[in-house]
Amino acid sequence: MTAADYINWSDLGRPVTALWRSANGAPAPKRVEPVDDTITADAAYRLASQGVAMLWNGDFQNARQILTALEHRTRPRPDHTERSTADLFYRYRQNRSHRARILGLLLVPLAVGNTIGLRRAPDVHAATVAAYGSITEASVVSLHEVLGTIGAHQWRTKGIPVAALNANIYPHYGTFFPVRSEYVDLVASAPLAAPQLAFDIGTGTGVLAAVLATRGVPHVVATDIESRAVASARETVSLLKLDGQVEVQLTSLFPEGKADLIVCNPPWIPATAHSLLDAAVYDPGSRMLKGFLAGVLDHLEPNGEVWLVLSDFAELVGLRSRGDLLNVIDAAGLRVIGALEAPARHSRARDTNDPLHAVRANEVTSLWRLCAS
Protein backbone atom coordinates (compact mmCIF):
# COMPACT_ATOMS: atom_id res chain seq x y z
CA MET A 1 0.00 0.00 0.00
CA THR A 2 2.82 2.40 0.77
CA ALA A 3 5.65 3.21 -1.59
CA ALA A 4 8.96 3.49 0.28
CA ASP A 5 12.42 4.53 -0.87
CA TYR A 6 15.27 6.73 0.34
CA ILE A 7 15.89 10.27 -0.84
CA ASN A 8 19.04 12.32 -0.45
CA TRP A 9 19.85 16.01 -0.29
CA SER A 10 22.53 18.34 1.00
CA ASP A 11 22.04 20.60 4.02
CA LEU A 12 24.85 23.17 4.44
CA GLY A 13 27.17 20.84 2.58
CA ARG A 14 26.25 17.85 4.75
CA PRO A 15 24.63 14.86 3.02
CA VAL A 16 21.26 13.91 4.49
CA THR A 17 19.15 10.79 3.83
CA ALA A 18 15.56 10.05 4.85
CA LEU A 19 12.87 7.53 4.04
CA TRP A 20 10.42 8.58 1.33
CA ARG A 21 6.81 7.67 1.96
CA SER A 22 3.76 7.91 -0.24
CA ALA A 23 0.46 6.25 0.56
CA ASN A 24 -0.64 7.16 -2.94
CA GLY A 25 2.17 5.38 -4.76
CA ALA A 26 4.02 8.53 -5.88
CA PRO A 27 7.66 7.82 -6.83
CA ALA A 28 10.49 9.26 -4.74
CA PRO A 29 11.80 12.55 -6.17
CA LYS A 30 15.31 12.35 -7.63
CA ARG A 31 16.35 15.92 -6.78
CA VAL A 32 15.64 17.55 -3.43
CA GLU A 33 16.56 21.03 -2.19
CA PRO A 34 15.86 22.39 1.30
CA VAL A 35 13.83 25.63 1.30
CA ASP A 36 12.31 27.87 3.94
CA ASP A 37 10.02 30.87 4.41
CA THR A 38 12.21 33.05 2.21
CA ILE A 39 11.28 31.28 -1.01
CA THR A 40 8.72 32.99 -3.23
CA ALA A 41 5.82 31.26 -4.94
CA ASP A 42 7.33 32.01 -8.35
CA ALA A 43 10.67 30.49 -7.35
CA ALA A 44 8.90 27.43 -5.93
CA TYR A 45 6.95 26.99 -9.15
CA ARG A 46 10.11 27.24 -11.24
CA LEU A 47 11.82 24.55 -9.16
CA ALA A 48 8.79 22.25 -9.29
CA SER A 49 8.50 22.76 -13.06
CA GLN A 50 12.10 21.54 -13.35
CA GLY A 51 11.24 18.43 -11.31
CA VAL A 52 13.05 19.63 -8.18
CA ALA A 53 11.37 18.70 -4.89
CA MET A 54 11.49 21.25 -2.07
CA LEU A 55 11.93 20.08 1.52
CA TRP A 56 10.33 22.70 3.74
CA ASN A 57 12.30 23.87 6.78
CA GLY A 58 10.19 26.86 7.77
CA ASP A 59 6.76 27.57 9.23
CA PHE A 60 4.10 24.96 8.38
CA GLN A 61 1.39 27.50 7.64
CA ASN A 62 3.71 29.36 5.28
CA ALA A 63 4.26 26.07 3.46
CA ARG A 64 0.50 25.79 3.05
CA GLN A 65 0.44 29.27 1.52
CA ILE A 66 3.12 28.28 -0.98
CA LEU A 67 1.13 25.15 -1.83
CA THR A 68 -1.99 27.28 -2.40
CA ALA A 69 0.02 29.52 -4.71
CA LEU A 70 1.21 26.47 -6.66
CA GLU A 71 -2.42 25.31 -6.93
CA HIS A 72 -3.37 28.66 -8.50
CA ARG A 73 -0.53 28.38 -10.99
CA THR A 74 -1.58 24.91 -12.10
CA ARG A 75 -5.26 25.66 -12.64
CA PRO A 76 -6.33 25.26 -16.26
CA ARG A 77 -6.69 28.54 -18.07
CA PRO A 78 -10.05 29.40 -19.61
CA ASP A 79 -10.24 27.86 -23.07
CA HIS A 80 -13.05 29.01 -25.31
CA THR A 81 -11.95 26.85 -28.24
CA GLU A 82 -14.69 24.50 -29.38
CA ARG A 83 -13.40 21.01 -28.65
CA SER A 84 -14.74 17.49 -28.79
CA THR A 85 -15.73 15.81 -25.55
CA ALA A 86 -12.89 13.33 -26.00
CA ASP A 87 -10.38 16.18 -26.33
CA LEU A 88 -11.81 17.93 -23.27
CA PHE A 89 -11.38 14.73 -21.26
CA TYR A 90 -7.81 14.26 -22.51
CA ARG A 91 -6.89 17.83 -21.56
CA TYR A 92 -8.58 17.43 -18.18
CA ARG A 93 -6.54 14.29 -17.45
CA GLN A 94 -3.36 15.95 -18.69
CA ASN A 95 -3.90 18.92 -16.39
CA ARG A 96 -4.69 16.65 -13.43
CA SER A 97 -1.45 14.74 -13.98
CA HIS A 98 0.61 17.94 -14.29
CA ARG A 99 -1.09 19.44 -11.23
CA ALA A 100 -0.45 16.34 -9.11
CA ARG A 101 3.21 16.27 -10.13
CA ILE A 102 3.80 19.94 -9.27
CA LEU A 103 1.89 19.88 -5.97
CA GLY A 104 3.59 16.66 -4.90
CA LEU A 105 7.03 18.31 -4.95
CA LEU A 106 6.59 20.40 -1.81
CA LEU A 107 7.74 18.13 1.00
CA VAL A 108 7.67 18.14 4.81
CA PRO A 109 9.48 15.98 7.38
CA LEU A 110 7.50 13.30 9.19
CA ALA A 111 9.30 12.33 12.38
CA VAL A 112 9.23 9.21 14.53
CA GLY A 113 5.89 9.18 16.33
CA ASN A 114 4.03 10.69 13.35
CA THR A 115 4.75 14.33 14.06
CA ILE A 116 5.79 17.17 11.76
CA GLY A 117 8.63 19.10 13.40
CA LEU A 118 7.81 22.49 11.93
CA ARG A 119 6.51 25.64 13.58
CA ARG A 120 2.70 25.79 13.78
CA ALA A 121 2.34 22.27 12.42
CA PRO A 122 -0.99 20.59 13.28
CA ASP A 123 -1.39 17.27 15.05
CA VAL A 124 -1.24 14.77 12.20
CA HIS A 125 -0.74 11.62 14.28
CA ALA A 126 -4.08 9.90 13.72
CA ALA A 127 -4.36 10.94 10.05
CA THR A 128 -0.86 9.80 9.11
CA VAL A 129 -1.06 6.55 11.07
CA ALA A 130 -4.14 5.71 8.97
CA ALA A 131 -2.22 6.40 5.75
CA TYR A 132 1.36 5.35 6.49
CA GLY A 133 1.23 3.33 9.69
CA SER A 134 3.37 4.20 12.71
CA ILE A 135 6.51 6.10 11.71
CA THR A 136 9.59 4.54 13.30
CA GLU A 137 12.20 6.19 11.08
CA ALA A 138 12.67 9.80 10.06
CA SER A 139 10.71 10.23 6.83
CA VAL A 140 9.74 12.78 4.21
CA VAL A 141 6.25 13.09 2.68
CA SER A 142 4.42 15.34 0.26
CA LEU A 143 2.62 18.20 1.99
CA HIS A 144 -0.24 17.89 -0.50
CA GLU A 145 -0.63 14.21 0.38
CA VAL A 146 -0.46 14.95 4.12
CA LEU A 147 -3.28 17.46 3.78
CA GLY A 148 -5.22 14.77 1.92
CA THR A 149 -4.74 12.36 4.80
CA ILE A 150 -6.05 15.02 7.19
CA GLY A 151 -9.15 15.53 5.03
CA ALA A 152 -9.72 11.78 4.76
CA HIS A 153 -9.38 11.41 8.51
CA GLN A 154 -11.95 14.16 9.08
CA TRP A 155 -14.36 12.32 6.75
CA ARG A 156 -13.69 9.09 8.62
CA THR A 157 -14.23 10.72 12.01
CA LYS A 158 -17.47 12.39 10.91
CA GLY A 159 -18.75 9.43 8.93
CA ILE A 160 -20.58 9.33 5.63
CA PRO A 161 -24.37 8.94 5.75
CA VAL A 162 -25.76 6.13 3.59
CA ALA A 163 -29.50 6.56 3.22
CA ALA A 164 -30.01 3.00 1.99
CA LEU A 165 -28.57 1.73 5.29
CA ASN A 166 -30.05 4.47 7.46
CA ALA A 167 -26.59 4.71 9.03
CA ASN A 168 -23.19 6.29 8.73
CA ILE A 169 -20.13 4.37 7.59
CA TYR A 170 -16.51 5.26 8.35
CA PRO A 171 -14.21 4.46 5.41
CA HIS A 172 -10.52 3.79 5.90
CA TYR A 173 -7.92 5.88 4.12
CA GLY A 174 -7.40 4.68 0.57
CA THR A 175 -10.89 3.27 -0.01
CA PHE A 176 -13.46 4.83 -2.32
CA PHE A 177 -15.82 6.98 -0.26
CA PRO A 178 -19.48 6.33 -1.22
CA VAL A 179 -20.37 10.00 -1.57
CA ARG A 180 -22.03 9.16 -4.89
CA SER A 181 -25.26 7.50 -3.80
CA GLU A 182 -26.64 6.52 -7.21
CA TYR A 183 -25.03 3.07 -7.35
CA VAL A 184 -25.97 2.29 -3.74
CA ASP A 185 -29.60 3.26 -4.29
CA LEU A 186 -29.80 1.10 -7.41
CA VAL A 187 -28.68 -1.98 -5.48
CA ALA A 188 -31.10 -1.08 -2.70
CA SER A 189 -34.07 -0.91 -5.09
CA ALA A 190 -33.44 -3.57 -7.76
CA PRO A 191 -35.87 -6.54 -7.79
CA LEU A 192 -34.48 -9.22 -5.49
CA ALA A 193 -35.56 -12.81 -5.99
CA ALA A 194 -34.59 -14.27 -2.56
CA PRO A 195 -31.02 -15.44 -3.14
CA GLN A 196 -29.48 -17.58 -0.42
CA LEU A 197 -25.91 -16.54 -1.23
CA ALA A 198 -24.61 -13.37 -2.90
CA PHE A 199 -21.12 -12.25 -3.90
CA ASP A 200 -20.10 -8.57 -3.85
CA ILE A 201 -17.00 -8.29 -6.04
CA GLY A 202 -14.68 -5.34 -5.42
CA THR A 203 -16.52 -4.40 -2.25
CA GLY A 204 -14.51 -1.31 -1.23
CA THR A 205 -16.09 -0.04 1.98
CA GLY A 206 -18.50 -2.99 2.03
CA VAL A 207 -21.51 -0.76 1.53
CA LEU A 208 -23.16 -2.88 -1.21
CA ALA A 209 -22.63 -6.10 0.74
CA ALA A 210 -24.27 -4.42 3.72
CA VAL A 211 -27.21 -3.28 1.58
CA LEU A 212 -27.75 -6.85 0.33
CA ALA A 213 -27.63 -8.19 3.88
CA THR A 214 -30.14 -5.62 5.13
CA ARG A 215 -32.40 -6.60 2.24
CA GLY A 216 -32.51 -10.11 3.65
CA VAL A 217 -29.81 -12.06 1.81
CA PRO A 218 -28.78 -14.66 4.42
CA HIS A 219 -25.13 -14.91 3.38
CA VAL A 220 -23.00 -12.41 1.46
CA VAL A 221 -19.34 -12.91 0.58
CA ALA A 222 -17.59 -9.62 -0.23
CA THR A 223 -14.17 -9.56 -1.87
CA ASP A 224 -11.50 -7.00 -2.63
CA ILE A 225 -7.91 -7.12 -3.81
CA GLU A 226 -6.84 -4.22 -1.56
CA SER A 227 -6.13 -4.95 2.11
CA ARG A 228 -7.19 -1.41 3.11
CA ALA A 229 -10.58 -2.00 1.51
CA VAL A 230 -10.96 -5.36 3.24
CA ALA A 231 -10.22 -3.77 6.63
CA SER A 232 -12.70 -0.97 5.90
CA ALA A 233 -15.41 -3.40 4.76
CA ARG A 234 -14.97 -5.59 7.83
CA GLU A 235 -15.35 -2.56 10.05
CA THR A 236 -18.50 -1.48 8.18
CA VAL A 237 -20.00 -4.95 8.60
CA SER A 238 -19.13 -5.02 12.28
CA LEU A 239 -20.52 -1.56 13.02
CA LEU A 240 -23.79 -2.49 11.34
CA LYS A 241 -23.90 -5.77 13.30
CA LEU A 242 -23.99 -7.82 10.12
CA ASP A 243 -21.08 -10.11 10.99
CA GLY A 244 -23.35 -13.12 10.98
CA GLN A 245 -24.41 -12.49 7.37
CA VAL A 246 -21.42 -10.90 5.63
CA GLU A 247 -17.97 -12.42 5.17
CA VAL A 248 -15.18 -10.25 3.71
CA GLN A 249 -12.27 -11.88 1.87
CA LEU A 250 -8.98 -10.54 0.50
CA THR A 251 -8.85 -12.03 -2.99
CA SER A 252 -8.84 -11.11 -6.66
CA LEU A 253 -12.40 -11.06 -8.00
CA PHE A 254 -14.28 -14.25 -7.05
CA PRO A 255 -14.36 -16.32 -3.88
CA GLU A 256 -14.72 -20.09 -3.96
CA GLY A 257 -18.10 -21.57 -4.82
CA LYS A 258 -21.20 -20.36 -6.65
CA ALA A 259 -23.82 -17.79 -5.72
CA ASP A 260 -27.40 -17.02 -6.71
CA LEU A 261 -26.58 -13.33 -7.09
CA ILE A 262 -23.26 -11.71 -8.02
CA VAL A 263 -22.89 -7.94 -7.80
CA CYS A 264 -20.04 -5.81 -9.11
CA ASN A 265 -19.55 -2.06 -9.31
CA PRO A 266 -16.19 -1.89 -11.13
CA PRO A 267 -14.14 1.25 -11.84
CA TRP A 268 -16.05 2.98 -14.61
CA ILE A 269 -13.40 4.79 -16.68
CA PRO A 270 -11.17 2.64 -18.94
CA ALA A 271 -8.03 4.76 -18.61
CA THR A 272 -4.74 4.62 -16.72
CA ALA A 273 -4.86 5.43 -13.02
CA HIS A 274 -2.31 8.11 -12.10
CA SER A 275 -2.28 7.12 -8.42
CA LEU A 276 -3.30 4.29 -6.13
CA LEU A 277 -6.35 6.24 -5.01
CA ASP A 278 -7.47 6.55 -8.65
CA ALA A 279 -7.76 2.77 -8.95
CA ALA A 280 -11.37 2.83 -7.71
CA VAL A 281 -12.32 5.01 -10.68
CA TYR A 282 -9.90 4.10 -13.49
CA ASP A 283 -9.73 0.60 -14.98
CA PRO A 284 -6.97 0.48 -17.67
CA GLY A 285 -8.22 -1.40 -20.71
CA SER A 286 -11.39 -2.31 -18.76
CA ARG A 287 -9.37 -5.15 -17.21
CA MET A 288 -11.55 -5.59 -14.14
CA LEU A 289 -14.80 -5.21 -16.07
CA LYS A 290 -13.74 -7.76 -18.68
CA GLY A 291 -12.24 -10.12 -16.11
CA PHE A 292 -15.40 -10.03 -14.04
CA LEU A 293 -17.71 -10.70 -16.97
CA ALA A 294 -15.45 -13.42 -18.43
CA GLY A 295 -15.37 -15.35 -15.16
CA VAL A 296 -18.75 -14.71 -13.61
CA LEU A 297 -20.60 -17.68 -15.13
CA ASP A 298 -18.15 -20.07 -13.46
CA HIS A 299 -19.36 -18.75 -10.11
CA LEU A 300 -23.08 -18.32 -10.85
CA GLU A 301 -25.70 -20.87 -9.86
CA PRO A 302 -28.12 -22.04 -12.57
CA ASN A 303 -30.89 -19.45 -12.90
CA GLY A 304 -28.73 -17.00 -10.93
CA GLU A 305 -28.49 -13.30 -11.67
CA VAL A 306 -25.60 -10.88 -12.18
CA TRP A 307 -25.88 -7.20 -11.30
CA LEU A 308 -23.34 -5.03 -13.09
CA VAL A 309 -23.45 -1.45 -11.82
CA LEU A 310 -21.73 0.95 -14.19
CA SER A 311 -21.72 4.64 -15.07
CA ASP A 312 -21.92 5.66 -18.73
CA PHE A 313 -19.22 8.34 -18.22
CA ALA A 314 -16.83 6.38 -20.47
CA GLU A 315 -19.42 6.37 -23.24
CA LEU A 316 -20.00 10.12 -22.93
CA VAL A 317 -16.28 10.90 -23.35
CA GLY A 318 -15.77 8.40 -26.16
CA LEU A 319 -13.66 5.82 -24.31
CA ARG A 320 -16.19 3.01 -24.72
CA SER A 321 -19.38 2.70 -26.71
CA ARG A 322 -22.61 1.10 -25.57
CA GLY A 323 -22.06 -1.46 -28.31
CA ASP A 324 -18.63 -2.31 -26.88
CA LEU A 325 -20.16 -3.00 -23.48
CA LEU A 326 -22.96 -5.14 -24.91
CA ASN A 327 -20.45 -7.09 -27.00
CA VAL A 328 -18.38 -7.91 -23.91
CA ILE A 329 -21.53 -9.03 -22.10
CA ASP A 330 -22.52 -11.22 -25.04
CA ALA A 331 -19.02 -12.70 -25.42
CA ALA A 332 -19.14 -13.73 -21.75
CA GLY A 333 -22.24 -15.87 -22.43
CA LEU A 334 -24.58 -13.44 -20.72
CA ARG A 335 -27.72 -11.62 -21.79
CA VAL A 336 -29.46 -8.53 -20.46
CA ILE A 337 -32.78 -9.19 -18.74
CA GLY A 338 -33.35 -5.69 -17.47
CA ALA A 339 -31.73 -2.43 -16.43
CA LEU A 340 -32.37 0.27 -13.86
CA GLU A 341 -31.01 3.77 -14.33
CA ALA A 342 -30.21 6.69 -12.04
CA PRO A 343 -29.20 10.18 -13.23
CA ALA A 344 -26.20 11.87 -11.63
CA ARG A 345 -26.98 13.54 -8.32
CA HIS A 346 -23.44 14.04 -7.01
CA SER A 347 -22.06 17.54 -6.42
CA ARG A 348 -19.70 17.54 -9.41
CA ALA A 349 -22.68 17.22 -11.74
CA ARG A 350 -23.75 20.68 -10.52
CA ASP A 351 -20.33 22.34 -10.72
CA THR A 352 -20.53 24.61 -13.76
CA ASN A 353 -16.84 25.51 -13.37
CA ASP A 354 -15.83 21.92 -14.06
CA PRO A 355 -14.52 21.65 -17.66
CA LEU A 356 -16.43 18.36 -17.90
CA HIS A 357 -19.63 19.75 -16.41
CA ALA A 358 -21.73 18.92 -19.48
CA VAL A 359 -20.60 15.30 -19.30
CA ARG A 360 -21.13 14.93 -15.57
CA ALA A 361 -24.57 16.57 -15.74
CA ASN A 362 -25.70 13.98 -18.30
CA GLU A 363 -24.07 10.98 -16.64
CA VAL A 364 -26.32 8.00 -15.91
CA THR A 365 -25.49 5.04 -13.69
CA SER A 366 -27.13 1.75 -14.68
CA LEU A 367 -27.66 -1.53 -12.90
CA TRP A 368 -27.57 -4.15 -15.65
CA ARG A 369 -29.41 -7.34 -14.72
CA LEU A 370 -27.75 -10.23 -16.50
CA CYS A 371 -28.19 -13.96 -16.67
CA ALA A 372 -26.71 -16.88 -18.64
CA SER A 373 -27.60 -16.78 -22.34
From TrEMBL:
InterPro entries: DNA_methylase_N6_adenine_CS, SAM-dependent_MTases_sf, Small_mtfrase_dom, tRNA_Adenine-N(6)_MTase. CDD domains: AdoMet_MTases. PROSITE patterns: N6_MTASE. One of its GO terms (biological process) is methylation. It comes from the Bacteria. Keywords: Methyltransferase, Transferase. This is Class I SAM-dependent methyltransferase. It comes from Cryobacterium lyxosi. The lineage of its organism: Bacteria, Bacillati, Actinomycetota, Actinomycetes, Micrococcales.
